[in-house]
Amino acid sequence: MKKIKIFAITGSTRKNSSNYKILKYISQEIKDSFEVEIFENIDKLPHFNPDLDTENLPEEVVSFRNKIEKADGVIICTPEYVFSLPGSLKNALEWCVSTTIFSGKKTGLITASASGEMGHEQLILIMKTLEANLKDDTQLLISGIRGKINEKGEITNVETGDNLQNFISHYENQFSVS
Questions:
Q1: Is the model's pTM score more than 0.70?
Q2: Which of 11, 93, 125, 145 has its Cβ near the most Cβ atoms within 10 Å?
Q3: Under CATH, which architecture does the 4-173 domain have?
Q4: This protein's superkingdom (predicted)?
């Protein structure tokens, strides 16, 4: 049976961040049915420039867009910086505005940060603008993430573990054929 391809984007540029660990956790939990590729080069995308958006598109952007387009679904897990999205994630999403690659794409959103509320709202708004296929039960806000996951990527908070399992279950169900 062919595995469903998921392209996972971490909004953090920090290596081994809490957001990266959450995506690794999810990829392990769904590995039997899903093939997850975690995009770790968000910091390699050039600054968005509308003059390059259609002609002379940078290779890194072409690759990034192609990975989204070829994926059956996308999961974004991001921190919140200064009550907003990290600039690197906003930049990556800006490279997608002139395309339809997110239109109808099954998308899960997780904001895992100290607070995260405002960044999460902004992420939802941006993804709705990009016409991503969002469901309420595949959007998750995890406040106080540093106290809920350890260095090994193990979820140490029972409620967070339950919420992640619920997120995973609902995300997987989107791909079930009735």
A1: yes
A2: 11
A3: 3-Layer(aba) Sandwich (3.40)
A4: Bacteria
